[in-house]
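It is worth pausing here to work through a concrete case rather than discussing structure prediction in the abstract. The textbook approach is simple: state the sequence, then state the predicted structure, then interpret. We follow exactly that order.
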Amino acid sequence: MPYVNIKVTDEGVSAEQKRQLIAGTTELLVKVLNKNPSTTFVLIEEVNTDNWGIGYQSVTELRQADS
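Step two, the predicted structure:
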């Protein structure tokens, strides 16, 4: 029973993109590991950019510096 947790920043990932991530991840586990898709779980978590850090800064700060 595979469980895959995908974390992305909350910057406009559409419902269709999420659907594709779930389907594609499930298909990869079916093809590579011969897993049953009905017992394969994919969780997508959207994380606020204030709560995602790279180095010493949040992604929010990094995005503002790039602007």
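Step three, interpretation. The helical segments are 15-33, 59-66. The domain at 3-66 is CATH 3.30.429.10 (Macrophage Migration Inhibitory Factor).
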